[in-house]
Amino acid sequence: MQRFQTIAISGKPGDAAVAETVRRIVEHLVERDRTVLVDSAIASESDMADITVAPREELASRCDLLISVGGDGTLLSVARSLVDYDVPILGVNLGRLGFLVDVSPGNLSELDLILAGEFIADERFLLEATVRHDDEILERQVALNDVVLQKWNTARMIEFSIHVNGELISHNRSDGLIVSTPTGSTAYAMAGGGPILHPHTDAMVLVPICPHTLSSRPLVINAESEVEVNVAADALGRCSISCDGQRDFVVAPGARLFIRRYPRRVRILHPPQYRYFELLRAKLRWGDTYVR
Question: What domains, with CATH codes, occur in the chain?
Fold first, then answer.
């Protein structure tokens, strides 16, 4: 069984609940003779003496496991930072829904099980969004949940075309487009009417945002596909691209947006009792008794 000896901790900066939870986790790990590293972005909040502090990317090159303290948004940020380091991530949930972070801060016995090698390892793929002008790459970002083309600072719709593997799919007038991984299918894509994809589905989903055509529907495509989005020239100043709702950039005149699967995956660890469909039932309240 795998045993994690050097463990890094990251989390949402500026949150008192995160700082308190980090202190408890550090003490818990030190008592079990683990080497603990703390993200410098939260070190001042943690206020732990004799603990190594470093930037997140440096922690990734030195640890066997990284614990993300916060909600799903925090884990999304951590996953993008660590995907190239092949470091497993464990999420401690201080958020609300918590589809990705499922260890309770009040039950650190779950952490002990994982330290002992009793866990479920879950590999998730990410998307890579690039903006290109001819052969020049102007912007490149990765996303675990979704890449979103969205209008901003306007009430008007935007116009764009979608190609998949070079084949025209549609011309669109809408508020934007969500290109989601299976992981992100329970996030913005679900709110936009898209299907829920099991995390191990080898697919991504295209979900139009408030399309002007009633026949425009979510489309599931193979994960090996390359999606190309061309925005009409008069809409370029009224739209932006967002990765996981956390990284934003724009499409320059004459440039095109390409979205494809990122070559590396991120590993997320869950307690041994983790069950995906049980999680869906609990978070989405499937089967709750109807009360008038």
Answer: 6-119+271-284 (3.40.50.10330), 126-263 (2.60.200.30)
